[in-house]
Design a protein that fits this description.
- This protein has 298 residues and is α/β, with parallel strands linked by helices.
- 46% of the residues lie in helices and 11% in strands.
- It is built from twelve helices and eight strands.
- α5 (128-135) packs across α7 (174-189) and α7 runs parallel beside α12.
- The chain is globular and about 50 Å long.
- The two termini are 34 Å apart.
Length: 298
């Protein structure tokens, strides 16, 4: 986590240091020796203060005011399925109590029975190989800090709002869940720089900035769009007489398209269904795994 951002002290101490060191060390390990459980930390939910919960509520309500019209039906169904609510920062696992003594469950208690996915707390940014090892096991590395109130509009790194609100609802859908695990397996075992770069582009143009046709119109599903008021409007409607280029999804073309990270995207790829994404990923994963002689299946 960046030292110039004034986070509330949700994670600290030796557990944080050990987990981050384990994740960093994964880059030099063969895939079969990586143990994602060594990357995970405790979510001390009781350490979130009133400002943290207020920030979550403000972010949630601002996006929800338009997402009912903008977001994929699959995303909206997933958000409801994992019982993601605006009044408090989400608990990931187990059970906790509000100040009035009312008990509530973590989102994994709803998510796990649906698709086998779960969100696990991590100390901060995970290097690519550690991240892929988690996805390959249907485990999503989840940042548990929340941005300070003075950084609500822009944060240069993930926080729990981006990770949980932006990503996790789609993990409740069996088709997307299969795609993401297959992606993780392929990326973990990718044996060439070319495949690593191609898979990075695929993640960017789908998981982060993907669009989909539903109900006869364009909708959002990528987390970067789900969590961004400004770019969501640009992706769907354009701005000041200008429009982004919206291309039909084609995995080979996606994997050959470079991306830019410091401004709104000039290009988006549009799915016709999540089955299209899953099936394309399955085909590509077989190719990657065959070339790397990885002892895994998809």
């Amino acid at each position: 986590m960046r030292s110039d951002i004034n986070y509330n002290n949700i994670i600290d101490g030796e557990e944080h240091v050990r987990a981050q060191a384990a994740a960093d060390a994964a880059a030099d390990l063969p895939a079969e020796r990586i143990d994602p459980h060594t990357f995970y930390v405790t979510q001390h939910w009781d350490r979130y203060n009133a400002e943290n919960h207020e920030t979550w509520k403000l972010l949630y309500e601002k996006r929800w005011s338009v997402l009912e019209r903008q977001a994929s039906n699959v995303f909206l169904a997933g958000l409801r399925a994992i019982n993601l609510v605006p009044d408090r920062v989400p608990l990931l696992y187990g059970e906790a109590k509000r100040e009035d003594g009312t008990a509530f469950k973590g989102i994994n208690e709803y998510l796990r029975p649906l698709t086998g996915w779960q969100s696990n707390a991590v100390p901060g940014y995970l290097p690519a190989k550690a991240f892929f090892a988690c996805l390959a096991r249907r485990e999503f590395p989840t940042t548990i800090t929340i941005r300070p109130k003075d950084r609500m509009d822009y944060l240069p790194e993930p926080d729990i709002f981006h990770d949980v609100f932006g990503h996790v609802p789609l993990h409740a859908d069996p088709v997307f869940a299969e795609f993401l695990q297959t992606y993780g397996k392929a990326a973990l075992h990718a044996g060439t720089k070319e495949h690593v770069e191609r898979l990075g582009r695929l993640f960017w143009f789908t998981v982060e900035f993907g669009l989909i046709h539903e109900d006869g119109r364009l909708k959002l599903y990528g987390s970067g769009l789900i969590s961004s008021h400004g770019e969501a409007k640009w992706a769907l409607e354009g701005e000041n007489g200008k429009q982004p280029e919206r291309r039909p999804f084609d995995l080979e073309r996606v994997c050959e398209t470079s991306f830019e990270i410091d401004h709104y995207q000039p290009i988006y790829y549009v799915l016709e269904s999540f089955e299209q994404l899953r099936d394309a990923m399955n085909t590509y994963a077989h190719r990657v795994l065959d070339e790397s002689n990885a002892p895994v299946t998809v």
